[in-house]
Amino acid sequence: MSHPKALATRALRGLRRVGNGVLDLVYPSRCLGCGARPESPQLPLCPRCLSGLERARPMEVAARLERLPTGGSAVETAHALWVFDKGGTLQAVQHALKYENRPRYGVPLGRLMGAAYAERHPPPDGVVPLPLHRTRRLERGYNQSAPLAEGAAAHLECPYRSDLLMRPHPTQSQTGLSRQARWANVQEAFRAAPTCAEGRWLLVDDVLTTGSTVAAAARALRAAGAEAASVLTLGLARH
Ligand SMILES: [Zn+2]
Questions:
Q1: Domain annotation for the chain: domains and CATH numbers
Q2: Centroid of ligand 1 to alpha carbon of 46 (angstroms)
Q3: DSSP state letters, 84-138
Q4: How far apart are CA 132 and CA 166, in angstroms?
Q5: Per the count of CB atoms within 10 A, which of 5, 22, 73, 210 is most buried?
Q6: How far is the CA of 186 from the centre of ligand 1 (A)?
Q7: Percent of the chain having pLDDT more than 90?
Q8: How many CB atoms lie within 10 A of CB 205?
Q9: Summary mean pLDDT of the chain
Q10: Which whole-number Å values give the CA distances from 195 to 99, 107, 121, 130, 181, in the listed order?
Q11: In 3-state terms, what secondary structure has residue 197?
């Protein structure tokens, strides 16, 4: 039984979500970078802001994972599309995806992620969104990684598989935790379904910071028999 206050908070959140949806209908979307009207209403950024984003270098993504206690050994390849700066354009995009109930931006962004991945790697057997624990998903209303993974799967022409990876244990938010604490926090967070065996999967998440979360998710897939687990994120947090 939920506490009445918690129910009220949830109801208010729901109302705000409806409100945002109505606002989106009344005022057509603006570029989250500069406020201009974007040419494509599907993308949250105008072409100028989009081309102004700095591409993440694959070597830097790999180097980030190598700094983990296990060296990210469960991850076959890791790829991030853009560099993520605090207070930058990409953070505004991530915030909209995560907290402002604008999952519709996720699919076209995921398609761009899929295109960047396809430049270097063959398509996987399926794309797996990084799951949220049930409580977190209820709070937000949806998992922001899901539309990104759907878009990437659509571009790579492979199945979207949200059934392979579960997050049965709630974890503390990674924000503000040290590298070591982030690592310890997510080690037992994920469980993979036995159906993931004999597949090469691509895990999709929004932002890679230390890589602890995606590495733990990849490890769960490998422990359940997956042939390989690679990682694709929208952003690589600048260090
Ligand atoms: Zn713009």
A1: 53-237 (3.40.50.2020)
A2: 4
A3: E-TTSHHHHHHHHHHHS--GGGHHHHHHHHHHHHHTTS---SEEEEPPPPHHHHH
A4: 8
A5: 210
A6: 36
A7: 58
A8: 23
A9: 87
A10: 32, 25, 23, 17, 31
A11: coil
The single residue listed with the structure tokens 């962004």 is: 109
What string of DSSP letters covers 128-193? EEPPPPHHHHHHHSS-THHHHHHHHHHHHTS-B-TTSEE--S-----TT--HHHHHHHHTTS-EE-
Q: Provide the β-strand partners of residue 160.
A: 127
Cα 90 to ligand 1 centre (Å): 11
pTM of the model: 0.84
Residue 132 falls in which region: left (phi positive, over 0), alpha (psi -120 to 50) or beta = beta
149 alpha carbon to ligand 1 midpoint, in Å? 24
2-18 burial, b at 16+ Cβ within 10 Å, e below that, comes to eeeeeeeeeeeeeeebe
3-state secondary structure 12-79: HHHHHHHHHHHHHHHCCCCCCCCCCCCCCCCCCCCHHHHHHCCECCHHHHHHHHHCCCCCCCCEEEEE
State the average pLDDT over residues 200-221. Answer: 95
Residue position matching structure tokens 């028999």: 225
Nearest alpha-carbon partner for 73 in 231, 225, 215, 232: 215
Q: Which two tokens stand for residue 78?
A: 């890791």
- 30 CA distance to ligand 1 middle (Å): 8
The pLDDT score that the predictor gives to residue 223 is 94
